[in-house]
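Input structure tokens:
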């Protein structure tokens, strides 16, 4: 398809950190996507927690299935806006590569452990994965992705970390956090598709788990309106079919809302090219009404699902695993794989090692090192 003038054109990419000949049959962004899909870190996502630990049920989302859903939603929005679908797919598939085992519980615990050593940000870790930690090519570390893909992967970044990135790569992916400019429209889109995806699938997984009920979620206006619409068309619909039909309608409504609102913003702003997007305010957005409803749904999920006593109990044990692994590896680096044990930057090496673990590998390592078996259902 033809790209809009404000889209990222792979033929005009800012390129890779290490120059490579162009691929004969693929654009730069298609090549990025393929490298991500074939990476070790991408495969590990299948055994990394989204909300429910991987062993708690075969049908709950993992980081891998979440990333696939984000990619699908992002492409659905990108096409009618004339944006680069290959770029949004690459960003979506890579955006969680730096997530720790045990989801946000593991991330928070690792950040606490790393506070004296510069902290831990999962977005920055995703960039570290694609820039440094993947070991596949003889000429360079990482995947050597295009600037535009790397920029989209780094959704958030503290000023201190942005300054460190700028020192290493002047004018690179950290620069916009210092200048307070925007990333590409494709990157903005993936950020919003991420929110749409996890709001929808956390309802599904929450009801499936029994921690929240369909009747509870019905009271949230964004979901309740679509449940009522489903029943109007299909009287007597119930159970999973009612849940899925309501979520499907909600997803469609949010996707169309973003398309319409973003199209209006682009018409008002009329950026002549992708460079002009960076100097403009954020352009990919919900309407005000949809943003308010989405925020209300997020608050509901926080209160009723993420802070449910059963989830909190699991969270506490998962954080204990991460903290104890960190302490043991820091004291005894030789317990890590050789490539990490030999690194001189011990705290960061430990953080990289733990962040790369799947849930079940982290649990096995914890049991091996401590003799204690937490979250025993893993077996």
């Amino acid at each position: 398809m033809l790209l809009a003038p404000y889209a990222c054109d792979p033929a005009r990419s800012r390129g890779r950190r290490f120059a490579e000949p162009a691929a004969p049959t693929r654009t730069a962004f298609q090549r990025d996507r393929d490298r991500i899909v074939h990476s070790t870190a991408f495969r590990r996502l299948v055994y990394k927690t989204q909300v429910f630990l991987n062993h708690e049920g075969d049908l709950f989302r993992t980081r891998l299935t979440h990333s696939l859903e984000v990619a699908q939603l992002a492409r659905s929005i990108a096409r009618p806006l004339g944006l680069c679908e290959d770029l949004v797919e690459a960003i979506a598939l890579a955006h969680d590569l730096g997530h720790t085992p045990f989801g946000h519980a593991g991330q928070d615990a690792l950040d606490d452990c790393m506070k004296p050593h510069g902290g831990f940000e999962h977005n920055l870790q995703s960039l570290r994965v694609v820039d440094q930690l993947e070991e596949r090519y003889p000429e360079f570390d990482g995947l050597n992705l295009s600037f535009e893909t790397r920029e989209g992967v780094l959704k958030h970044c503290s000023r201190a970390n942005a300054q460190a990135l700028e020192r290493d790569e002047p004018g690179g992916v950290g620069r916009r956090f210092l200048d307070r400019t925007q990333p590409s429209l494709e990157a903005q889109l993936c950020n919003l598709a991420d929110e749409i995806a996890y709001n929808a699938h956390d309802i599904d997984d929450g009801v499936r788990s029994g921690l929240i009920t369909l009747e509870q979620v019905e009271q949230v206006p964004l979901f309740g309106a679509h449940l009522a619409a489903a029943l109007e068309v299909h009287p007597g619909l119930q159970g999973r079919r009612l849940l899925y039909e309501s979520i499907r309608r909600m997803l469609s409504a949010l996707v169309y809302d973003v398309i319409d609102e973003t199209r209006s913003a682009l018409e008002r702003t009329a950026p002549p090219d992708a460079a002009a997007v960076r100097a403009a305010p954020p352009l990919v957005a919900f309407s005000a009404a949809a943003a308010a409803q989405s925020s209300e749904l997020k608050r509901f999920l926080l209160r009723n699902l993420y802070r449910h006593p059963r989830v909190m109990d699991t969270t506490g044990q998962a954080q204990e695993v991460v903290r104890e692994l960190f302490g043991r590896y820091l004291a005894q680096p030789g317990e890590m794989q050789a490539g990490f044990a030999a690194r001189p930057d011990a705290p960061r090496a430990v953080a990289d090692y733990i962040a790369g673990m799947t849930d079940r590998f982290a649990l096995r390592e914890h049991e091996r090192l401590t003799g204690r078996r937490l979250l025993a259902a893993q077996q």
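The mean pLDDT is 93. DSSP finds 19 helices and no strands in the chain.
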